[in-house]
Amino acid sequence: MSRVSIQGLQIKMGSLPILENLDLEVHEGEFLVLLGPSGCGKSTLLHSIAGLLEADQGRIDIGGHDVTWADPKDRGIGMVFQSYALYPTMNVEKNMSFGLRINGVPKREIAQRVERAADMLHLNELLTRKPSQLSGGQRQRVAIGRALVREAKVFLFDEPLSNLDAKLRGELRRELKQLHQDIGNTMIYVTHDQVEAMTLAHRVAVMRNGKIQQIDTPQAVYARPANMFVAGFLGSPSMNFLEGELEVGPGGEATFIKGALSVSLQGYEFAARPAAGRRAVLGIRPEHLAVDQDGVQGATAQVTLVEPMGSHLVVWLSFLDQQLSVTMPVGGEPVPGQRVALRFDATRASLFDPESQQRL
């Protein structure tokens, strides 16, 4: 196992900066997920760790050694790409052992390493098959096995499941998590899929425009997003946002006001004491917003759409010319056109500054 330390990393494509002064610490044995939309710089960061892209500035340490200018083969990493990149004329065993054979590893040791990796990835019965005889999930397991046999200090994954269908993604995601529990090596995983990030990661680093917006456990990032981008990127449907203002009582208790909507913020942990009359954005996730079909007091909204999702429903509401989403159990759901009262779980709410979009 090895820790990965990145300090002041800067990478440009021509004159365009992709990563700017980026710092990152990955702990030994950690499963870190780099999460963000396409073009945010997460794959660029991973490729720079692998040595596939040169840094314009900064330093990369792996296992306490400066590898900023080291060749990929000298960094002690194993990498799995989005495409399987298997040799079509070689069988599974030859594909997995190719790098070892090129490096002159003794045949007995190669056989032992391939056998161990095949056991972990359930590939024993497929070792004599060629890639054309494998399913997409099996091919990706072979690609993972090829990285495993190197017995690398750090494993890097560049969206390895994105080419698979939903069922296979779920199966391989579970196998990857089990694999990490079994071998305990440091793993850095790139994805734009928040389900993969939430289920696999010890910590998630959410990226945007070449910068890390927040890095924390999946639960902390989801429950206490650092800004509106993180809040809106995580969750499906995404967080509801309402812009209003704060009222502050004589005892310092704060209330969010928007039209007829009044939400007590008692117990909310502000970063700094709020000022009365300050503009603020209230963020509330669909599962923390409820509707009262019998109530007509206070703030009401009109149901515009009901989406059955199997285990639950997503109800869409029109409130002050905004669309809000609510998740609720199946059965007794409201119907389009019906007016319902809104109820907020304020203890789960987030507040943001409308200009800086940072958490209040």
TrEMBL record:
It comes from the Bacteria. One of its GO terms (biological process) is carbohydrate transport. InterPro entries: AAA+_ATPase, ABC_transporter-like_ATP-bd, ABC_transporter-like_CS, ABC_transpr_MalK-like, ABC_transpr_MalK/UgpC-like, Mo/tungstate-bd_C_term_dom, NA-bd_OB-fold, P-loop_NTPase. This is ABC transporter ATP-binding protein. Pfam families: ABC_tran (PF00005), TOBE_2 (PF08402). Coiled coil: none annotated. Keywords: ATP-binding, Cell membrane, Membrane, Nucleotide-binding, Transport. GO terms for molecular function: ABC-type transporter activity; ATP binding; ATP hydrolysis activity. The lineage of its organism: Bacteria, Pseudomonadati, Pseudomonadota, Betaproteobacteria, Burkholderiales. It comes from Piscinibacter gummiphilus. The keyword Cell membrane applies. GO terms for cellular component: ATP-binding cassette (ABC) transporter complex, substrate-binding subunit-containing. SMART domains: AAA (SM00382). Gene3D superfamilies: 2.40.50.100, Nucleic acid-binding proteins, P-loop containing nucleotide triphosphate hydrolases.
